[in-house]
Predict the structure.
Amino acid sequence: DVKVTQSSRYLVKRTGEKVFLECVQDMDHENMFWYRQDPGLGLRLIYFSYDVKMKEKGDIPEGYSVSREKKERFSLILESASTNQTSMYLCASSLVEFNLLRLGQEQFFGPGTRLTVL
Amino acid sequence: KQEVTQIPAALSVPEGENLVLNCSFTDSAIYNLQWFRQDPGKGLTSLLLIQSSQREQTSGRLNASLDKSSGRSTLYIAASQPGDSATYLCAVTLRFQKLVFGTGTRLLVSP
């Protein structure tokens, strides 16, 4: 079974702190993703990575950065946490799409990190 | 821009009923469509994935259909149980495996 783990289930930080959210997957997936989930807004993509040291902005990258030094690990960084970044953060991974067959791959999600910024 | 809508936003049914959840999307240029389940405060569990070339997928009491030309998918749950209570999300997959999610249907199955 694919397993995606996130370093913390709950996290409380203060405004201005630098925050690291870690995600690890154990199935050798090429793609990894960070989403945030807010009531009424649903899940929104922050950043994604399709290879080591590669990163692409999603729909709401402002205020975030990411790091992917190893294939299995994808970190989300809040350089200076703000109260509007209080949210549920979800990490996901998938195999790369097979362009020849144009198949989309299933995404597997971690348990989430509930971040509160005071 | 792709938009995904789910109707109804909330649904309450007695145990044993068959039910249908709806998902619609505005752009038919998708790779696949996934249905997820989310329990309160938890992550997402993948239920079914339908490739864009397929019409339906089944897993146990769940059946999902896809009509790409009309931009619609349905999730059918047979003989609902209290353990099915959760929020159900649909998401379409775009290029680079980017997912666009609906806002979900919150289901409550009462004993």
About this structure: The first strand of chain B starts at residue 4 and ends at 7.
